[in-house]
Design brief:
Elements: E1 7-18, E2 21-32, E3 36-40, H1 47-54, E4 62-67, E5 70-71, H2 76-83, E6 86-89, H3 101-112, H4 117-130, H5 146-157, E7 164-168, H6 176-193, E8 196-201, H7 204-207, E9 213-218, E10 221-226, H8 228-233, H9 237-244, E11 253-254, E12 257-258, H10 261-267
Parallel strand pairs: 3-8, 3-9, 6-7, 7-8
Antiparallel strand pairs: 1-2, 1-4, 4-5, 9-10, 11-12
Helix pairs in contact: 3-4, 3-5, 4-5, 5-6
GO molecular function: ATP binding
Keywords: ATP-binding, Nucleotide-binding, Transport
Protein name: ATP-binding cassette domain-containing protein
């Protein structure tokens, strides 16, 4: 008898609001430990809102979010402890421009551990090795290419050896080769470290091939959750429009992003 994998993140009947308006609702989702999950969808549909809820930045209006079996805390102390187990790769990298790559990667270790300088130097060197940036250790962010800066930010996100890595649009601004390098690197880290990885993205063709699970956010909720193969084989008109990049279809473009007509009525 097969044993189901443990769950890294669980959403149960979750509703997320911003500015008094429901952005996402009725979210039920399990992300297995050790998996690599792509959360896809057009711009403006709430993918980053979902990420904010998992990190505890946004409190659900309804429902429950659990990370490694425990509900996301709502106290500052509880959030701090939980976030030590999360690595977050920000869309804009978030590197401090006045610090070298080494100093950026060392920041979480100085802030959240009592390790010696020698121990921190060893850990930083190992993280830079893991992302292929050992030779760039003493460079500043302004001296890095877009792909190198993204890898430096990834090394910093992994500094505390978190079991869960959240990536917010990691391919934004990268060329196809750099995008492929980043996705292959994430997959390698996922497989070698047993790292649970959630990738928020709208880059379908670069992301799906390296993921175990695909989730599509649209029309204020989860339009699909399953394997990448099942997603690509789907004949659902909404999913086909998104995957093919068609201008015409169930999804309509409204200014800042795609929005569902029912959600617009709720907001009114």
């Amino acid at each position: 008898m097969s044993v189901s994998p443990a769950t890294a993140v669980r959403l149960s009947s979750v509703r997320l609001d911003r500015g008094g308006r429901a952005i996402l609702r009725g979210l039920d989702l399990d992300i297995p430990q050790g998996s690599m999950t792509a959360v896809l969808g057009p711009s403006g549909t709430g993918k980053s809102t979902l990420l904010a809820a998992i990190t505890g930045e946004l409190v659900p209006t309804e429902g429950r979010i659990e990370v490694f079996g425990e509900e996301v805390p709502r106290t500052p102390g509880g959030l701090l402890e939980m976030r030590k187990r999360l690595g977050v790769l920000l869309q804009g990298n978030g590197l401090l421009t006045d610090l070298t790559v080494t100093e950026n990667v060392a920041l979480p270790l100085h802030a959240h551990t009592r390790r010696t300088d020698v121990e921190i130097a060893r850990i930083v060197a190992a993280k830079l090795d893991a992302v292929g940036l050992r030779a760039a250790a003493n460079l500043y962010p302004r001296e890095l290419s877009g792909g190198m800066a993204r890898r430096a930010a990834l090394a910093r996100a992994l500094a505390l050896d978190p079991p869960l890595l959240l990536c917010d649009e990691p391919l934004t601004g990268l060329d196809p080769i750099a995008s492929s390098v980043i996705m292959q690197l994430l997959r390698r880290l996922n497989q070698t470290l047993g790292l649970t990885c959630i990738v928020i993205s709208h880059h379908v063709h670069e992301t799906l091939p390296v993921c175990d699970q695909a989730v599509v956010i649209a029309n204020g909720g989860i339009a699909f959750a399953g394997t990448p193969q099942a997603l690509q084989a789907s004949d659902d008109p909404l999913l086909r429009q998104f995957l093919n990049g068609d201008a015409e279809g169930p999804l309509s473009f409204e200014g800042a992003g795609f929005a569902a007509a029912p959600m617009a009525r709720d907001a009114a």
